[in-house]
Amino acid sequence: MSTGAMRRAQLVTPFGVGAMSVLVNGTSVITAGLDHWYEPNDASSLALEEYQEHDWRLEARLRVSEFRLPPDYRYQGQGKDNRNVKLTVPVLRFPRWCFCMFCKRLELSTLTMQHPVSCGDKKHREWKHKPRMSQVPFIAVCSDGHLDDFPFEDWVHRTRRPSCKGPLRLKSWGGGGLEGQRVVCDGCQKERTLRGITEMRLVNGEERTYLSDQLSEPDDPYLCSGARPWLGELVGVCSQPMRGALRAAGNVYFPKVESSIYLPRQEGAVSDEMHDLMRHPAVSTTMRTLHDIFGSELTVDMLRGQLLKNVPPELFSPISDEELIAGYRDLFGVGAGGSEPVEESDPELLTGEDEWRHPEFRHIRETPKDDYLTATDPGIHSDLNEHLNRVRSVDVLRETRALRGFTRVRDDVLKLSAGRLYCGVSHYRQFKIGCPPTSSKVRAFTWSLTLPGWQLGRPVLRCRTVLRRSPTITGRSSPSAVSKREPSLRASYCCTRWVIC
Ligand SMILES: [Zn+2]
Ligand SMILES: [Zn+2]
Ligand SMILES: [Zn+2]
Questions:
Q1: Residue 408: nearest ligand to its CA?
Q2: How far is the CA of 40 from the centre of ligand 1 (A)?
Q3: Could you tell me if 220 and 143 lie in one domain?
């Protein structure tokens, strides 16, 4: 077991699904896909509604039905309340290749190795404590987003199917470059430097890499096997060229994070309390079922009638009909209400940033009054009258940031469906990192799991509320007022103040 620290927001970026990070004990890990992010020891203690979030515009944009907050780590419950205790985030050990600092021997470990790997080389036969091996800094990536261990065995033997199984060593011959790193096989005495493994060139517009072409020969290229170790998959479908990379290199992970400022369908129509009620799983499930059947045709009587069957009646008795139906429209972005329709476009691509931001701009330059979006007019000093038309003080806004996928090698366009697949999962065992509500300490646990297939459409999000507490334009106020009230959301809130002209 290892300990480390990670803030919840870091699980959106930079350490979201598919990203590599290093635990405090030096283990390099990759954040696993989403299917096992919300699995407590005791399944009955899971209260998923605490992590479900909605933003109807962003849901429509990304074509998903909800967002999830990364779970916070709770050492124990409060009183009898044991909900979501000890929820952790799974990570897998990657790269699998380890090497010994003393004898330079290479050894292939597993994604789920739970303990440090010790070197079993005969050179340490007399040692009381076998030396601990480190993970190698080299990996291989393809431009379709796959990631694999560097093929040391194939590389040194210059063939994709080496018959020699001799022990390998990774020796340093001095010099800081890759040419100073040399793979040596004890069995057949072959050796080869790592020179050129990161190189690529374009031939007639087609990408060719040194690793693929030169591992054996260009007629028999070494191509990507489609590995997605963050999902526990070491074989998949792909035939792109592979290139070597350092695991800390900047081109190994480009997260695709989308942000949205929440815009109410109808200003002031839905209170904070109603938003909270809609997080209740019985409420959101009922509303979703009705939406699937009736869409924007749903009447408030039908809605209230169904809710009364599924949730305690006292929950909704203080809520007016107007607010109830407004909440429904807000949740799904349907029906009347002074908001813009989501335009039809290529279902695989996002709308342009200007197009996407313009409605936010239009709302904020007015003076909206809503529990989730409030802006006021502080007036303009007479000296500035000539230069500024209007100034707005944004007192409350709610920003949702969602990780929808990532690319590797290049910061390319990522299709929506591809992004979702990259966040999926299959069968694996894993480490887990827990995220406590305070950033003081995090635990990484080892677990063993078998899981069902991947489910689509669950980007993770960070949700940020901006509250005005300070009278100065640039001042920051203490977040403590917020965090004391709602400790589990502490990492989700930050207090600052925006003024937009
Ligand atoms: Zn050794
Ligand atoms: Zn050999
Ligand atoms: Zn690939």
A1: 3
A2: 38
A3: yes
Q: Given a cut of 50, is residue 320 above it in pLDDT?
A: yes
Residue 258 inside a domain? The answer is: no
Q: Indicate which ligand has the atom closest to the C-alpha of 147.
A: 3
> Confidence class of residue 422 from pLDDT cuts 50, 70 and 90?
low
Query: In this structure, which ligand is nearest to the CA of 237?
Result: 3
Q: Give 95 Cα–ligand 2 centroid separation in angstroms.
A: 22
Does residue 9 share a domain with residue 66?
yes
Number of H helices, E strands in the chain: 11, 25
> Of the ligands numbered here, which is closest to the C-alpha atom of 123?
1
Residues 8 and 84 occupy one common structural domain: yes
Please check whether residue 372 lies inside any domain of the structure. no
| Cβ pair 240, 144 in contact under 8 A | yes
Q: How many domains does the chain have?
A: 3
211 CB contacts (<8 Å, ≥6 apart)?
140, 155, 196, 197, 198, 222, 241, 242, 243, 244
Report the separation in Å between the CA atom of 366 and the middle of ligand 1, taken as the mean of its atom positions: 68
Cα(108) to ligand 1 centroid in Å equals 13
- The size of the chain, in residues, is 501
Predicted confidence band of residue 170 (pLDDT cuts 50, 70, 90):
very high
Q: Are residues 241 and 275 in the same domain?
A: no
Please name which ligand lies nearest the alpha carbon of 103. 1
Same domain, 128 and 206: yes
- C-alpha 156 to ligand 2 mean position (Å): 8
140 CB burial (10 A radius; 0-12, 13-18, 19+) = buried
pLDDT at residue 416, as a whole number? 81
Give the residue, 286 or 346, on which the prediction is more confident.
286
If you measure from the C-alpha of residue 301 to the centroid of ligand 3, how many angstroms do you get, rounded to a whole number? 53
Token look-up 């990379």 returns 245
- SS3 of residue 384 by DSSP: helix
Per-residue pLDDT, 428? 30
Distance 88 CA to ligand 3 centre (A): 29
Listed residue (386, 365, 319) closest to 498, CA to CA: 365
Residue 4: which of 431, 443, 430, 445 has the closest Cα? 443
Residue 381 lies inside a defined structural domain of this protein: no
Closest ligand to Cα 169: 1
Mark whether 140 and 240 lie in a shared domain.
yes
Does one domain contain both 238 and 132? yes
Give the residue numbers spanning the domain of 289: 264-338
* More confident: 35 or 124: 124
| Residue 328, pLDDT score | 87
User: Ligand 3 centre and the CA of 143: distance in Å?
Assistant: 6
Last residue of a domain, one of 245, 277, 312: 245
Q: Which of 338, 357, 388 is the last residue of a domain?
A: 338
Band (199; pLDDT cuts 50, 70, 90): very high
What is the rounded average pLDDT of the residues 305-333?
A: 85
Residues 137 and 173 in one domain: yes
* Per-residue confidence (pLDDT) for residue 3, from 0 to 100: 52
